């Protein structure tokens, strides 16, 4: 039952046009509904939580969503790729 | 050792208006460290023209040629053709079963690109059997690899460095970290076979946000998952040493 609720919510977050977030996980833990995963901005996090709230689950929503790291300049240096050793 | 061709890459930036301003400042002046910028699909979040405009504005800041493939998100609104046109009007190259070459100071770079599709990996892949829907799913996965092979064949051995660019993963090694149950929806071993048969020096893909950066094809071609959540940077640069003179 809880498992079903969690999967339904994940599906809605993936298919709702406001979110379309495929990387969000939902778990039921006692009276809590834990929402986790990664999104790219604060606004996207808030929208995911809004979509979850629209379902009357009676559970307390716990927001464990992480924000993707803001991109830094070019990562740690360059990686050298040498020609494969083919015969 | 000859000078390398410097290939910058990123994927899965999922742009929309809320992320404007995040990439342009990091891409200005990229010519100092790279010869080209390759983007491995999921340029937008929902595949709308408005989001494609945001992508074009951000990535248009790069002062090197920008070559992209689209991702599944870029198809979501059915506007992939219009997105392609918009990006090409903005001077970018959109590859879909096609290839292109660029001359750099270190030699000629050839890039073949395709979005790719699901299918899975050896022993755990969809089979061309049963219902028409299953056959359609499977044959699309197979077809997309054939299209990549043809684009790579078209390049031949003329480039000094050949890169295969896709959205879906050609191997499963770069999917480690993603739940195994969804691997068949993240990549396609036939893409890897096409890469192994055509003299590719580096394969780049995205789509697997929770995967890892580095892998190899069965024949030993380096594969890099450049999904932005994986590389956690605006781009990664691969200095690819030309094969011919090595
Ligand atoms: Fe993506
Ligand atoms: Fe994707």
UniProtKB/TrEMBL annotation, chain A:
Residues 1-71 form the BON domain. This is BON domain-containing protein. Signal peptide: none annotated. It holds the Pfam family BON. Residues 68-87 are annotated as: Disordered. InterPro entries: BON_dom.
């Amino acid at each position: 039952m809880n498992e079903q609720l969690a999967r339904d919510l994940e599906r809605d977050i993936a298919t709702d046009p406001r979110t379309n977030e495929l990387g969000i996980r939902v778990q039921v833990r006692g009276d809590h509904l834990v929402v986790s995963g990664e999104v790219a901005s604060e606004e996207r996090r808030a929208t995911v939580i809004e979509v979850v709230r629209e379902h009357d689950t009676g559970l307390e929503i716990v927001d464990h969503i992480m924000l993707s790291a803001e991109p830094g300049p070019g990562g740690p240096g360059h990686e050298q790729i040498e020609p494969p050793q083919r015969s | 050792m000859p000078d390398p061709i410097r290939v910058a890459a990123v994927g899965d930036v999922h742009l929309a208006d809320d992320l404007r301003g995040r990439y342009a400042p990091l891409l200005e002046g990229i010519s100092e460290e790279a010869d080209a910028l390759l983007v491995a699909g999921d340029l937008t979040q929902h595949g709308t023209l408005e989001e494609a405009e945001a992508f074009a504005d951000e990535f248009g800041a790069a002062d090197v040629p920008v070559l992209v493939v689209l991702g599944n998100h870029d198809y979501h609104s059915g506007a992939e053709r219009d997105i392609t046109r918009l990006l090409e009007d903005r001077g970018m190259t959109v590859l879909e079963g096609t290839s292109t070459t660029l001359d750099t100071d270190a030699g000629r770079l050839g890039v073949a690109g395709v979005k790719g599709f699901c299918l899975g990996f050896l022993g755990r892949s969809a089979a061309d059997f049963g219902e028409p829907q299953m056959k359609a799913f499977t044959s699309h996965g197979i077809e997309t690899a054939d299209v990549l092979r043809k684009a790579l064949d078209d390049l031949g051995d003329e480039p000094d460095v050949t890169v295969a660019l896709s959205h879906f993963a050609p191997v499963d090694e770069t999917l480690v970290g993603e739940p195994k149950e969804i691997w068949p929806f993240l990549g396609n071993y036939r893409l890897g076979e096409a890469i192994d048969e055509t003299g590719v020096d580096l394969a780049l893909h995205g789509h697997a946000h929770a995967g890892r950066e580095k892998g190899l094809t069965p024949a030993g071609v380096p594969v890099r998952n450049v999904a932005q959540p994986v590389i956690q940077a605006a781009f990664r640069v691969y200095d690819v040493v030309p094969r011919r003179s090595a």
